[in-house]
Amino acid sequence: MSTTAETGPLPAPEPDPNTEDAPFWAGTAEGRLMLPRCTRCATVIWYPRQFCSECSGQDVEWFEASGRGTIYARTVVHRAQGPWRPAAPYVIAYVELEEGPRVLTNIIEVDPDTVQVGQEVRAVFVAAGPHKIVRFTPEAGA
Ligand SMILES: [Zn+2]
User: Fold this and answer.
1) Is the pTM of this model over 0.85?
2) How far is the centre of ligand 1, averaged over its atoms, from the C-alpha of 49 (Å)?
3) How many CA atoms lie within 13 A of 89 on its CB side?
4) CA 41–ligand 1 middle distance (angstroms)
């Protein structure tokens, strides 16, 4: 889209994986959205960690999520600071994943003014140093 061509790319903050979220980052490196699910109450856990915020269970199983979701809330940032400044305008959004969790993220590869609540999006994986982070883009034809 022509309107995004005028702006710089969004900065991609480099994650610092630890033992709690290592399976998540191993997944994103392969273009897969890996999430933990509590084996006791089946809650899908976000942010990824080996601990269930619902029942305090510490036994989780990792599975590959669909990468699909819908926009629950969004805002367009027109004035940003520091390294984010050249990227404005850009979209910050909560995406509700098919599996349940709401993820704070950016919606990319789209004209920011066209992004709407309820819009269907899918995960895309963006290089951040030696890792890849997850952002979302509208489903084609959605
Ligand atoms: Zn649980």
Assistant:
1) yes
2) 12
3) 14
4) 4
Give me the domain span that covers residue 131: 2-138
The number of distinct structural domains making up the chain is 1
Express each pLDDT in 44-94 by its tens digit.
999 999 999 999 999 999 999 999 999 999 999 999 999 999 999 999 999
What's the average model confidence in pLDDT over 125-129? 95
- φ, ψ of residue 97 to 5 degrees: the values are -70, 155
Burial of 122 (0-12, 13-18, 19+ CB in 10 A): middle
Query: Residue 96 C-alpha to ligand 1 middle, in angstroms?
Result: 19
- Give residue 101 CA to ligand 1 midpoint distance, Å: 13
Task: Write down the pLDDT at residue 9.
Answer: 83
What does the alpha-carbon distance between residue 42 and residue 61 come to, in Å, rounded to a whole number?
A: 9
